[in-house]
Amino acid sequence: MFAQASWYFANPENLQVFKLISQVIKDFASSEINQASSLFDCDIKLDDNFLKSY
Prior knowledge:
The chain has helices spanning 2-10, 15-37, 46-53. It is an all-alpha fold. The chain has one domain. The radius of gyration is 16 Å and the shape is rod-shaped. The two termini are 23 Å apart.
């Protein structure tokens, strides 16, 4: 499945797939930054942690 997605990503004629994968990568990066920014925050509430994670 990942190989097929990579093939579609490499195909420059399929702009919608390129945009979607780019958005997923952006979302992953944003989530990692949010997680790292609250890494040592002992005051974070459980609900806030769930919102950060999902």
